[in-house]
Specification:
It contains 17 helices and no strands. It has a single domain (24-415), classed as Amino acid/polyamine transporter I, CATH 1.20.1740. The protein has helices spanning 2-7, 12-25, 33-38, 42-68, 77-85, 87-123, 131-147, 150-174, 190-207, 214-225, 228-260, 263-272, 276-284, 287-324, 333-354, 359-384, 395-415. It is mainly alpha-helical. Helix 5 (77-85) packs antiparallel against helix 6, helix 7 (131-147) runs antiparallel to helix 15 and helix 13 packs antiparallel against helix 14 (287-324). It is globular and about 60 Å long. Helices cover 79% and strands 0% of the residues.
């Protein structure tokens, strides 16, 4: 008993993964989240806070349990899908998994180029650098970190996440004297309240989404703890920690921004299509906030890039192995890693140079797929897969399924 008690204490490994998953979830989208989530007013936001914590934790725990349910320890999500659902379904889900994550990676490659370029021009007052060269240097640097070992990547993400959390928290505190009650006085009708909730749930789900890193995270837990029961306990605890700090820091930031602005100003920020920090910097004529904007965006994109790269690489390598019918044991992993890195370098670089405006649309098309894989697939597996049947009969399964269906329906509605 005491053995398991001591081994369940928080350790450096768990905390590092909490920060890494936090970094994966908090992309540059956090700078637009107060605008998108706050548009419907204050009260729907309160209800969302009560829902989004359990949603985030339970859905990601389900996906982690799914990865850990393989009879072969060390299997990634693409192998587990094939083991439980057969070869054809395995290929299809792996393809969908890849195409749900890959566009986000393209957006980050493009986004980091735009962020650094904008910082050089607007904050440093220098001429815009050569885009071809700038994008290559930035993307090649990010990908080369991913070619190092897991410990280096985790350490670097940890170093990026600390200032990110600190700045978000400091800005949230800084805005407190500016809070006003205009948002509290806006009471929506029951109909518009429910509609706002329905449309905003996916916004929050994807702002808190760290599913691309869950497979690599679950495998890492297995390597660290060996014992299946201990692995699952530590994985659940780490995911609960991640959901908690996401809820505290991100939602405090959202509330602080929403309480600082009036509903009309949020509409204006949406119309101007600028991040919340740019809007606040203009409103208060504060140069410091406008300096923090690009810094937060840079930290958020970089830390989120690493987590999404793990998922996209897993999907691409899984597809390659499934389509070529290679034996996983005989494949040279290092060569495959370098091959996928080269593919990502060329595609991300190409997109960053072209700088297309349709990227947001592609990302929203991936939304329903992510929700399917994160919410629905693990709950379906609990019903159908013998290895997961011990999780049956829990109220949390029903909650995750309903929330998943709500998120998918709202995303599909948003597309049309």
């Amino acid at each position: 008993m005491s053995q398991s008690k001591t081994s369940m204490k928080w350790n450096k490994f768990d905390i590092t993964w909490v920060l890494n998953l936090f970094g994966t979830a908090v992309g540059a989208g956090v700078l637009f989240l107060p605008i998108n989530a706050g548009m419907g007013g204050f009260w729907p936001l309160v209800v969302m806070v009560l829902l989004v914590g359990p949603m985030t934790y339970l859905a990601h725990r389900g996906l982690s349990r799914f990865v850990l349910s393989s009879s072969k320890p060390g299997s990634d999500i693409t192998e587990v899908v094939e083991e439980h659902f057969g070869k054809t379904a395995g290929k299809l889900i792996t393809l969908l998994y890849f195409f749900a994550i890959f566009p986000i990676l393209l957006i980050y490659g493009n986004g980091i180029t735009n962020t650094v370029d904008s910082f050089i021009v607007n904050q440093l007052g220098m001429a815009s650098p050569n885009r071809v060269l700038l994008s290559f240097i930035l993307i090649a640097t990010l990908i080369s970190v991913m070619l190092m070992n897991e410990k280096v990547m985790l350490k670097l993400t940890e170093l990026l996440v600390y200032p990110l959390v600190l700045i978000l928290f400091a800005l949230s505190i800084y805005l407190i004297p500016e809070w006003n009650t205009s948002m509290l006085e806006q009471l929506p009708s029951a109909g518009s309240f429910l509609t706002t909730l329905w449309i905003t749930i996916p916004v929050l789900v994807f702002s808190f989404n760290h599913s691309p890193a869950i497979s690599a995270f679950s495998q890492s837990q297995q390597r660290e703890y060996k014992d299946a029961a201990l692995t699952e306990k530590h994985a659940s605890k780490t995911l609960k920690g991640t959901a908690t700090i996401l809820l505290v820091f991100v939602m405090f930031f959202v509330f602080s921004c929403v309480l600082t602005l009036t509903p009309e100003e949020l509409q204006l920020a949406k119309a101007q299509n600028i991040s919340i920090l740019s809007f606040l910097a203009n409103k208060f004529d504060n140069p410091y906030i406008s300096y923090f904007g690009p810094l937060v965006a840079f930290l958020a994109i970089t830390s989120s890039f690493f987590g999404h790269y793990l998922g996209a690489r897993e999907g691409l390598e899984g597809l390659y192995l499934k389509m070529t019918a290679h034996n996983r044991e005989s494949i040279n992993r290092k060569k495959l890693n370098y091959g996928t890195a080269l593919f990502f370098l060329l595609t991300l670089w190409g997109v960053a140079v072209i700088n297309p405006s349709i990227l947001g649309l592609i990302e929203s098309l991936g939304g329903p797929i992510i929700a399917m894989i994160l919410f629905i697939m693990p709950m379906y597996a609990i019903r159908k897969v013998p290895a997961m049947q011990r999780y049956q009969g829990k109220l949390s399964n029903l909650f995750v399924t309903i929330m998943g269906l709500i998120a998918i329906s709202a995303v599909v509605y948003g597309l049309f």
